[in-house]
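Q: Structure tokens for this one, please.
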Amino acid sequence: MRNSLFVALMMFFVSSAFAAQSTAKQPSKQPVKKQQIAQQVKQTAAPAAASDDMVPLPPRAKSYERYTEMYNIYNGDRLAKIVMIGDSITNGAYWNELMHRGDIINRGIPGDTTQGMLERMTTFNTGTIEKAFILAGINDIAKHQPVNVIFERYVRIVDFLKRSGVTPYIQSTLFLSVKNPNCAVVNKQVAELDGLLKDYASKNGIEYVDLNSVLSDGTQMIDDYSYDGTHLNAKGYMIWRAALSKYMEPQYELPAQEPVQTSDAIQPDVSVQPAN
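A: Here is the predicted structure, written as tokens:
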């Protein structure tokens, strides 16, 4: 009887130890934290392999540091589900208002390149972020970076997001319009980069959002959608919004507004008053 009791107790302790060991091996489902991926960011953002036609990137504008500092202290990543990654074209919209949502954070910086985006990865994907929409490449081209190097950096951005549990969406690099004097030369490189990105997305099961299919005539941006040949105007952003609507439905609807009759409306007093 004592032997049977001893054997039963031994089996119980062995089973408990095995269960504890199995539980310890279960992967953590906690969201990725900034401090946990610091080393991963450092490795991901390392400069791309040098090539014979490599051109050093020029110094960044002084405002760049201010943007990165502010993005690092914001806590929107604890509430947001979507991040917009890019340069001045992304930076130029209030995305929550444009998309009728409240869970989007904008991480676009004017003048940014794919290398800069790699270096500030921790501002993209921590907390509750589920989706990342990337628009990049035009500044790299403007700064004479080879298309193959731009593509390599872009892939590293996408790979990093995937490893961090964020679903990436590759948006086509936008063509320039004829308002920009460099339109013809730059657009050839844009088409080459977009071809690489589209093929990569197709082969790796990543959503490719072809903005040029609705913002261009196939070779250059439709002039009516840009105010300077590079950046979008309100019409352009409305087209962009429509293209993204299938990937992020509005969380609220704006009520229809009656047109304001200017003659009946109260007008502000814009007269200049003398200082006392």
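A few notes: The mean pLDDT is 81. Residues 262 and 270 are 16 Å apart (CA to CA).
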